[in-house]
From TrEMBL:
Record Gene3D superfamilies: DnaJ domain
One family name in Pfam for this protein: DnaJ
Species this protein is from: Prorocentrum cordatum
Name of the protein this chain belongs to: J domain-containing protein
Sorted UniProt keywords: Chaperone
Listed InterPro entries: Apopto_cytoskel_mod (IPR051938), DnaJ_domain (IPR001623), DnaJ_domain_CS (IPR018253), J_dom_sf (IPR036869)
SMART domains (UniProt xref): DnaJ (SM00271)
Lineage: Eukaryota, Sar, Alveolata, Dinophyceae, Prorocentrales
Region feature Disordered, mapped onto this chain: 17-39
Length: 278
């Protein structure tokens, strides 16, 4: 029960936690130092506020270190103690993790302000009675790490927002480069022998054909045969398909000759036997 009572003790200041590992169970916290007995905090020692920026802490440390340096105060026996206090305060407040731990200790210690110490410590420690031996031992080890300045429960450093444009542009440039280079990587389009199947399919033979503008199709031509003239073609459709010719605008149809090309065989139809127009 003595060990459990010791674990239910309120949080101690950082300097008191440093002596926790070497003290026997149930011994309680180490005796307070002269500054703790007077209620002074590291902020009071450096003469800065709790909202002081790192630059202000550093400037206060330099000023007080020069003021209390033993070499400048050979006749003052208290100067050396003050100098050590200033060094200890700066070592804690200049480190982000140690400062966070120290502020947490202040919040639940007698040194905290009235706004942050109005907490019923029996309420936030009552769950310690329900701890198992494994949980209690884990808490002891956690306190030892805290006393040594090792914190693995603090959030990571915030994301560097200044690098966001660089990261975004880098990703966009990488995707663009991959899209541009992918045809060469996978299809070897830069090779002189490259053949795109979508436009130059060598597996389908080419045949000679003319374009029928009335039916909008390619019609194969026999070897050596010539296509009909536009007038002959239109006369044939006026006789056989008058309804089709009425739906067409003759002003948009070719007047002089029909188009003849080498077209894939699969895109053509067989030649239609049609008599010559009179």
């Amino acid at each position: 029960m003595a060990a459990a009572a010791a674990l239910r003790a309120p949080a101690w200041p950082a300097r008191a936690l440093r002596g926790l590992a070497g003290r026997p169970p149930g011994a309680g916290p180490p005796p307070p130092g002269p500054d703790e007995a007077e209620g002074r905090t590291f902020y009071d020692i450096l003469e800065v506020s709790r909202k002081a920026r790192p630059e202000e802490v550093k400037e206060a440390y330099r000023r007080l270190a020069k003021k209390y340096h033993p070499d400048r105060n050979a006749d003052d026996p208290e100067a050396e103690n003050r100098f050590k206090e200033v060094q200890e305060a700066h070592a804690t407040l200049s480190d982000q993790w140690k400062k966070a731990l120290y502020d947490q200790d202040l919040q639940f210690s007698k040194f905290g302000s009235a706004a942050v110490t109005d907490v019923d410590k029996e309420q936030w420690t009552e769950h310690w009675d329900k701890e198992t031996e494994e949980e209690r031992e884990a808490r002891r080890e956690r306190y030892k790490r805290y006393a040594a300045g090792e914190r693995n429960d603090l959030p990571p450093d915030p994301f560097p927002l200044r690098l966001t444009p660089v990261i975004f542009l880098g990703i966009v440039a990488g995707v663009f480069y991959v899209c541009i280079r992918a045809p060469d990587w996978f299809d070897l389009q830069s090779e002189a022998t490259f053949c795109d199947p979508a436009y130059d399919d060598k597996t389908v033979p080419l045949v000679r054909a003319f374009h029928d503008p009335v039916l909008n199709r390619w019609e194969r031509l026999p070897e050596g045969a010539a296509p009909p003239s536009p007038a002959e073609l239109y006369a044939y459709y006026r006789k056989r398909r008058p309804d089709l010719m009425e739906a067409l605008d003759l002003r948009l149809l070719p007047k002089l000759s029909l188009t003849i090309l080498q077209v894939p065989r699969t895109d053509t139809v067989k030649p239609s036997p049609r008599p010559q127009a009179a």
